[in-house]
Amino acid sequence: MKRLLQPFVLVVTALLAAAYAYPAARLATGPWERVALAIPFFLIWIVPALYWTAERDGEESWLDQAAHQASYLSMAWVSFILVLTLIRDLLLFATAALPLERAHGVITEAGVPAVSILSLAAVALGAIVALRGPGVEEVEIRVPRLHPELHGFRIVQISDLHVGRSIRRGYVERTVERARSLAPDLVALTGDMVDGPVERLGPHVAPLAGLAEGGRAFFVLGNHDCYSGADAWIAHWREMGVRVLLNEHAVLRRGAATLLVGGVVDPAYRARRPEISLEEAPRADFRLLLAHNPKLAPLGARAGFDLQLSGHTHAGQFFPWTLAVRLVHAPHVAGISREASMWVYVSAGTGSWGPPVRFGTSPEITLVRLVSA
């Protein structure tokens, strides 16, 4: 009972109650309909109220896993139901004001079942898009005076894989297979690879070791990697042959050309602050920075990097968060942008977090090619 009175739980409860009040008032016509509509809101409440506020050790039971999946799917459904209810009300207002009596009558009669059907269809379609596996997003970075031996250099970025309840070994194996088919010269794992401890998820991330041959794979921490036990995962990635960059850089050579790879820790990593400098770094023909959070772009631009690869935003993952994310992360929300003289590419994510749903975005493996301008 004491946990339920924590400020965080009280705030979550109040927000969900307010969100419930609107569709309940606009869609439900009787007590049983209001109870049915309350179920997904209650399922959403379960995870932050009962799981995020408690220390839980060991393997999760099937009941724990089912509760999380039901909660996350309810998050997506509630997002769609709120948006569709608002659209219905705006159409009712517009048809009443114009007036369009026939259209108003149709929307009044068919609006509620349409909202219910469309919201469920959106969740189903979004789940198919999220779980079928990532496609390949190709990006060309044109670099003035690029060393001839770096022309065509191929960087494969995997970001925000979120191996955990929805993303399992099979999904990881498909991701690795597609990444290997792109013949990368360098593999960038830009954080949020996992949602859980090494003991539970180690076997599921194991296929990623197949991308680490020749020391070409680099990893930087994301915030969820930190929540999942940063130090244990750092050690595990190194055992897999992946090079972990903690506010440091490494040098790759391709013929006579030199490529420098830097990596900064996520702000969620309590052991160090994110910072990087190239003052004592060797001269390089191209300087690549890996930083999970795109908000670190000013840091990379000041240091003198040519390109930063980031993730974190999921491009909003599904509507309407695809719009809301722009308020938080602009100008580096998704895709290619500039920070002073440095290019910034933000991946939409290779997996999904929370609801295994994508609507308005798609999971991606990014193929970045360096070409002479």
Describe the protein in words.
This protein is of the alpha/beta class. It folds into 2 domains: 3-131, no CATH class; 135-372, Purple Acid Phosphatase, chain A, domain 2 (4-Layer Sandwich), CATH 3.60.21.10. It is 43% helix and 17% strand. The protein contains 10 helices and 12 strands. It has helices spanning 7-27, 31-51, 62-97, 101-131, 169-181, 198-205, 223-227, 230-239, 297-303, 321-329, and strands spanning 135-143, 154-158, 186-189, 217-219, 243-244, 248-254, 257-263, 286-290, 307-310, 335-339, 342-346, 364-372. A 6-stranded mixed beta sheet has the order 1-12-2-3-4-5, covered by helices on one side. Strands 6-7-8-9-11-10 form a 6-stranded mixed beta sheet. A hairpin with a 2-residue loop joins strand 6 and strand 7 (257-263).
Strand line-up in the sheet with most strands = 1-12-2-3-4-5
Let me know the CATH homologous superfamily of the largest domain.
Metallo-dependent phosphatases
Can you identify the CATH class of the largest domain? Alpha Beta
**Reported CATH architecture of the largest domain:** 4-Layer Sandwich
Indicate the low-confidence ranges by residue numbers: none
What number of domains? 2
Helix-and-strand structural type? alpha/beta
Helix-strand string = HHHHEEHEHEHHEEEEHEHEEE
Give the topology.
Layout: H1 7-27, H2 31-51, H3 62-97, H4 101-131, E1 135-143, E2 154-158, H5 169-181, E3 186-189, H6 198-205, E4 217-219, H7 223-227, H8 230-239, E5 243-244, E6 248-254, E7 257-263, E8 286-290, H9 297-303, E9 307-310, H10 321-329, E10 335-339, E11 342-346, E12 364-372
